[in-house]
Amino acid sequence: MSAKSTERGATGLRKAAAVAQLRSERELRAITDTVLRLAKARGIPETEVHVEEVIDALTRFANNAIHQHVAEHGVVLSIRIALNGRTARVTTNRLDEVACRSALDDCLSLAASQPKDPLLLPMLGKQKYRKVQRFAPATTSVTAGERARAVKRVCEVAERSGQVAAGIFSTGQSQTLLSNSRGLFASYRQTQAEFSVTMQHGSATSWAKANSADARQFDPLALAITASEKAERAQNPIELPPGRYTVILEPAAVLDLVGFLFYDFSATAVCDKRSCLSGRVGKPLFGRNITLTDDVYHAEQLGMPFDGEGLPRQRVLLVDRGIPKNLVYSRRSAKLAHKKPTGHGFALPNEFGEAPMNLVLAGGNSSVPEMIASTDRGLLVTRLWYIREVDPYEKIMTGMTRDGLFLVEKGKVGPAVRNFRFNQSVLEMLRNVELLGSPHRATAEESFEMVVPPMKIGKFQFSEVTKF
Amino acid sequence: MGHVTACPLVLVGTMWDYCGHSLETARLRGARYADVRVMQMRQRDLTTKNGQVGTLGQSESIGLGIRVVANGAWGFASSDQLTREGIASCAAQAVAIAKASALAKKEAVQLAPEGTYVDSWQGPCQKDPFEIPLETQLDLLLATDAAMRKVKGVTLAETDLQFRKIDSWFASSGGSKIHQRRVTSGCGIAATCFKGDAIQKRSYPNSFGGQHILGGYELVESLDLLKHAPRIAEEAVALHDAAQCPEKTGTLILGGSQLGLQIHESIGHPIELDRVLGQEANFAGTSFLTLDKLNHLQYASSIVNVVADARISHGPGLGSFAYDDEGVPAQCIDIIKDGAFRGYLSSRETAHLVGLHRSGGTMRTEGWNRLPMIRMTNVSLLPGTWTPEHLIADTDDGVVMETNRSWSIDDRRYQFQFSTEIAWEIRGGKKVRMLKNPSYSGITTEFWNSCDAICNADHWVLWGTPNCGKGQPMQTMGTGHGAAPARFRNVKIGIAFSNE
Description:
- By secondary structure, chain A is α+β, with helices and mostly antiparallel strands.
- Helix content of chain A is 24%, strand content 36%.
- By secondary structure, chain B is α+β, with helices and mostly antiparallel strands.
- In chain B, 20% of the residues lie in helices and 38% in strands.
- Chain B has nine helices and 24 strands.
- The longest helix of chain B is centred in the first third of the chain and has 18 residues, at 12-29.
- Mean pLDDT of chain B is 96; it is low at 1-9.
- Chains A and B meet through helix 1, helix 2, strand 1, strand 2 and strand 3 of A and helix 1, strand 1, strand 2, strand 3 and helix 2 of B.
């Protein structure tokens, strides 16, 4: 490759220094229109086209320095056809007409190879969607240099405290277009920014994280200072015996446990008898202070206002004062159950059906300081880790505490405590909630983001203790 | 009928042009080192559920990722815009990112020396799964699904097949040009029974997607899913009437697939040098295996020997390849030798930190849009001398556990807890009854030091773990774990279901 030929791409190189931007909706629509035109010419009765473009960048740091720093840009085209009671999907990231023809050929072959599905529904026609604004232009202009400078300031906080910082600062944007041969057209754009930091003080650690559509909605430096102060307090942990304790779960810990319930509210999971709600809908299951909704329109939520088939998402009351009231339904599961679909279906074909992806857990009028002040003896939990399901019907989850576990005694936060393993039924836990705080968007590592409050919970079961 | 056209391969010469153009752009923009991966990935997924086709999909993806060192720091960018301008823009972005990284660097990146290789390699694949008619594959799954549902009490029958074909073209500024083709195949079945107030499940040949290898459709044929369907369905139903696994401290025998996951979590992850060095502290965690423990820690009992072996001679594992994703040839590394801790998984950047002159060749990437990072290859427990029959006959009082149900371990990899789908109680050298809801827990080094018997090579299987997550952005990687059933003493059993 000669230097001269490389210079011919000089315009492209200058563009590279700037932050990449999404294509126009018109450009992506040209792709979906091409596929629909080609499919019609092939005589395919029903075709659905889904195009997704993602631009992401992530600055990763550890040992008070950036060690990984990445950017990606990609577009994926996914085509589903339906004919003679059969459906199949082919996905590619080649967007030219030849590739579209090839993908349609493959769809036809896949569809022809399977038996008829008597429950396959015709594709949806045109729909109306409620508008959501989740695209923050400020997030799209954050450069690699700006993220690096923010990370440098965070690392300086750590160094000043004799600590070691690790974490990420990411910014990105994405768009989705969904179109079909029956006239459905849906589009959605979103930005996303995230900052997460772990501060290590000797062998003690703590952590803070935030996530928003708008990078201006959180301050990496403030999060770093919070984690730093907590890491300092987390030194010299004492060892307590395992057993049942009153716990105060910060929102990240609540999120990661309650988040494991999301698929249980799927009508398909209940129909398959693998949900913990099988036989329990309509009966008291949690405490009366537990009310859970799925609400993509909540001001602190992100996500598309339509599902994988293009059906508008509805707000669904899942649990009303402790009683599971409703499930979410795809079009297929709704037909089977003689219910109305709720707009929570996954893209077809799939065996999972649907799930609520925008959980909002109602809160109370307490706060973490008030929970601490009201506790004679208990544990303050920053976050949980490596949570897995031990028993699917009693919803016993196991996992570890991580990055800051503190003893609370006589209304005050005391020394750090060595991390525990828990084996706790989430159903039982939600019967033992004593106090709830104000709900806000929370982010952690085990579940997707949700709006949840901090909680004070009685008789939380810790079964073993680890070495740190 | 049923034959899906393979996506047309872009000409190999073009792939090398893409690589060369990106490397040259990176050099001109100021990169001191660069490597590039053009990757084309094809995937097919088939599932059934209760007699219906679930997922039936095929996907392909092609793109380029370039990693550079400029101003002594790393940058990486990826793109699916495989045009001259798109590739140049991507390479220039990687350099710009590296220069931004240098704003917050401590030391300049230092890479262990490595040879220059020009090579083309293809992994084993006797029967290309993309050439097997779809009807054949679906017929097998639907027949197996039906065989499970024939057993009274089964409430959910599931089957799945997964195939991938990955071509990668690697080139580096050091002059290496390596093409590799890896075909992986996976299959599994599961029967679930909901009865009363409990859900019980059995899987074959392993849970969470079954067995996975570097190889073709021959895997599916060798596992004879149809033959095993009635047995696992009957076991799922029978578990409801089985006794609860008792809570006690005692002797535990682990089946091979569960032991494979035990190796993955309590040996494979702690030996990743990036974790040890704190590079994963924010997400995956760190490791108790601090550098002072190398060659000093008695990790396990003296009968335990563990290697990380990426060479194809170790077997067709998900961690088998000819070169890693920074162009280092596959190697076999001693991890535990006669119980003593002997080695880490390393990269060109981290090798010198443990006194190595060369990378251990464990840098792997999920795809063209992800950065290579230290990953397990085939981390395997070498076989011992026992047979399973001999092992049980030699055990007076114990529990045999098989097929993983849940797994969890702390962020430094000390304290773990596993539960399995099924267990059997052993009394007087015989399996006397089935147990439900089995679990066990422990501290990594205490557990491995309690190993007193390992079965022989006739019972050793190279298990595939297809879903190992690590990194930010998250990457999913397949790893291999050779294991034969083994026995452990004084293990805490049954605590997951304790209500105290």
